[in-house]
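Predict the 3D structure for this chain.
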Amino acid sequence: MLAYIIRRLLLMVPTLIGVVTLTFVVTQFVPGGPVEQVVNQLRHGAHHGEGGSGGGGYHGSQGVSPEQIEQIRKQFGFDKPPLTRYLMMLKSYATFDLGQSYFQHQSVWSVIRSKLPVSITLGLWTVILTYAVSVPLGIAKAVRNGSRFDTVTSVLVLVGYAIPGFVLGVLLLMLFGGGTFWQVFPMRGITSDNFESLSAFGKLLDYLWHIVLPVTAAVVGNFAIVTILTKNTFLEEIGRQYVLTARAKGAPERDVLWKHVLRNAAIPLLTGLPAAFVGAFLNGNLLIETLFSLDGMGQLSYDSVIRRDYPVVLGSLFLFTLIGLITKLIADACYVIVDPRIQFERMDR
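Done. Predicted structure below.
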């Protein structure tokens, strides 16, 4: 197991380099880079100062001197050749220095840290509620396979899966956010303006009050996958010989399900939990964050690409790729913890 982990860790290095290299190359050919963005802002600022007579759109460096453009290029590091900038970036990433944001005047680490609480909140509650609802529901469906309960719940979870989270969010705002019917929950933000003045219990209630609608919109579509996976896994285990033997010996049905079947059926669920959690809060749901005015990773990723804030784009991609690779390694290790019969050394031969 230790040798397998070491090999996986070593393989992470070329994977990270490949992902960052490909993204760096792509950014060199994207039109409207950070220098052009600043020049465009300066040109429009000059026109507004003259009475706003300038037209919309980008028309080159009109109104900005070559000296200013060269200063901007030097500020962003574009006075150096691409290969030099690429090697400097790899050297910085080797020490986990993700650089400075072009437009937010702070380090990429600080920018990411400021956005993570919102994404972690959505991701954590999404995973907790998904597993808390879907696993018991999947077990109940497996035990009652083919019944009316099984059919009705299948229709409900599939309808929830078919409805996009953004559409569900709009519907929830119309019903409970004061859009058309009742104003039960707030329409935006993750806390109230007076959050800091509230007591500890008041802060908890205020936080829960704000996340009900966005978490509901994010989680409903996830029920179907885990529910169907749980049901199918339980059905497969229920039909195995050891279950028939336990029943033939007179073991109570409750013991058969919870002591024998659950232990084996839980393997794919538990091993997929780390990846599900990390994926839920790192992906960032841009549409839901925009709809509920939540400033998280989804919004950050979108804004960074639009503004050509390449240090944030590359730095966050490097960090999240690393986290994803480590999460995959943890998931593989969970297989051995849950089922000691799995030996990676034998699989590698």
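Confidence is low (pLDDT under 50) at residues 47-61.
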